[in-house]
Amino acid sequence: MIISNTEEVPGRKITQFFGVVSGSTVRAKHIGRDFMAGLKNIVGGELKGYTELLHEAREEALERMRQQAQSLGANAVVNVRFSTSSVAQGAAELFAYGTAVVVE
Amino acid sequence: MDVANLVVFLVLLLLAFFAGEWIERRHFKSLRRREQRWRRLPAITLRHIPESWQVEDASLLMGSTVVSVDYFKRFLAGLRFLFGGRVKSYESLLDRARREAVLRLKKAAMDGGYHAVVNVRLETSRMANSRGNEGTAGVEILAFGTGLKLHQRPA
Predict the structure, then answer these.
(1) B49 near A10, Cβ under 8 Å?
(2) I want to staple A21 with a disulfide (CB 3.0 to 4.6 A). Which of A53, A68, B108, B115 is the partner?
């Protein structure tokens, strides 16, 4: 499965469109990570725990999108976008969406 | 104000000032070094690829980081909000974070054997504080784009 955020897959031709596919996940930080981040907040810099958490969550959202595209019979998803929103205190929704297509 | 509280506040402020400065200076140094090293790998925001490029493979690539400002700078920024104007301490933080995210994107491209990244986009989002009080737990910067494997490395 080819995933791309360009409008077409570079070097290939799109032969069929299936429409929007999406995947999302809502994650909360766990208390240990939050405590460490609280300490890190004093000296500033990167909060590695959160970086990893969001990265994993985004991978999962992409995986769900990929599965949806697969079940439609697509072999690529183009023009993929992301959106992140904090839905509740300490929780965030990671959302990925794109257009499922068939490429040569 | 309680004397003990004041002491804790001052100690935190000093610790944050020295540690924060040190970490920031070290980070900028490392950013410059890596930017220099990977400048041959183009990460461009254009959607259309040059016609001379023969693409063999394409894939979505990402790089991200969550950063937070230190206690001293937050205090400074707090003062700044009284008068308005540029909040330099946050500017440098976001600058560091964006450059770091782009470098991680480039690293992902390097590791995967890609020759270029096109249609690079940057997104910024705030992470809410779980205690629900004012302020944030951090700011996330995400850089993503389409990595290309080319028949021939671009000049």
Answers:
(1) yes
(2) A68
